[in-house]
Design a protein that fits this description.
By secondary structure, the chain is an alpha/beta fold. It has five helices and four strands. It has a four-stranded parallel beta sheet with strand order 1-2-3-4, with helices on one face. Helix 4 links the parallel strand 3 (about 80-85) and strand 4 (about 105-110). Helix 2 (about 15-25) crosses helix 3.
Length: about 150
Amino acid sequence: QTHAYEYFMDRVGLKKYQHILKNRLTKYDANIVLIGFSVGASAIWGISHQPSLKHIQKAFCFYGSQIRQNINIHPLFDIELIFPKQEPHFNVDELITLLHKKALVTCIKTNGRHGFMNELSTHFNPDFYKDFIQHLKTYLAQLKNRNP
């Protein structure tokens, strides 16, 4: 996991990933729900203020630790930030305090650790995984009922 992250940051990087993601998403005009994990969550956060992405319905961002590098962003779509109980490089509670005041931002702090949704992670937690999969299913079902 650490090797994959380092490889990604050396070969692609967050800014390039954000550029790719933004370009792909601007091609769609329908409401879109995004789900991102770790660097994917950070990439979603990093482009969430772009006017060309106002058509995004909502984003769910799990343990996006690089969000802390861009706290001045003001998203233009609903975004739910799901944080682990702790991160080694920053204080999760302090970050949540800064972010929860923003419009369209909801912060959730779990008792899980970074990677709790990833079955291949040493921090995978099947109970948290099950709970958040249900959370996502519930949201998507409600969305489907609103837009048949």
